Amino acid sequence: MRFKRLDQARPFVTLAVIVVAWLLVPVGVKAILRVSFFELTAPVTLAASRVRDLQEFWSLRLHSKDDLIAAGRDLARLNASYELGVQRNTELQAEIARLETLLRLPSFTNYRYEHARVARRDFSGWWQRIVIRKGRNYGIPVGAPVVFTGGVVGRVTEVHAATAVVELISSPNVRLAGVVEGDTRPISFQGGVNPTFAPPTGVVEFVPLDIVASPAAPKRLVTSGFGGVFPPGLMIGTITRASMGGDGLFQSGEVKLDERLGSLAEVTVLVPL
Questions:
Q1: Is 17 a member of any domain?
Q2: 103 domain residue, yes or no
Q3: Which runs of consecutive H residues, i.e. helices, occur in the chain?
Q4: I want to staple 219 with a disulfide (CB 3.0 to 4.6 A). Which of 74, 152, 167, 239 is the partner?
């Protein structure tokens, strides 16, 4: 009977020994082991991502010629509208440069746009992040902002040889300064605790008392440009609720983020020049 009890307790003793040994390992060794493990598993992640791209390619080959002609026609319309937008953007940039020279204002940080495919998504209640298929091989630095057509995606937190980890703005570890569109007073934004399959949300603090937001009349929250990480004017989300905070001086509220954050296939990294 005693030997039977020892056999039953052996797995728990082994687990306890492993946990204690891991706690005694220096932090530097843990970091090296973690990076080494990530680099070893990176080829598997990249291969799985490329296989998904190949499956999507062959699934598109099954479409009829009429579908392809209709898609090409829609794409031509989009390209025409984008060309007009590019021309307008060039004119605005020239006007901004003229005003900066005239008023002797400091220039905003210039960026190089690096487009990258999403290789893996890693969502939980503690973090919200994705892995992209570009890293040091394309000069991506830690801390670089990441955007998409709907606004802010997040920022780069880890860079490896051929991959990089992007923490989404829906993660509770991300904080940034924003402003209500049309206002100049900064507001503190932080990602919320989001379940895996729930719509992404965030929270705001230090909202001025005269700003009224509700589900029927939400307020657009954009980046303020403070901190030098994100350019000003990028879409963060919409404030759907704002109520009096505990101090009575400011409001706090909830921000609805873009639902496409959980299904992104391609993002753009802004690499500072």
A1: yes
A2: no
A3: 2-24, 27-61, 65-103
A4: 239
Strands 201-207 and 111-123: unpaired
Q: Give yes or no for a contact between 247 and 127, defined as CB atoms under 8 angstroms apart.
A: no
Cα atoms in the 13 Å half-sphere on the side-chain side of 182: 3
Using CA atoms, how far apart are residues 31 and 29, in angstroms rounded to an integer? Answer: 5
User: Structural domain tally of the chain?
Assistant: 2
Query: Tokens 């929250």 map to which residue?
Result: 221
Question: CA quadruple 225, 229, 233, 237: dihedral positive or negative?
Answer: negative
Look up tokens 């992040």; give the residue: 129
In a domain, residue 114? The reply is no
Cα–Cα distance list, 142 to 12, 202, 268 (Å): 40, 23, 14
Can you give the residue range of the structural domain that contains 50?
2-61
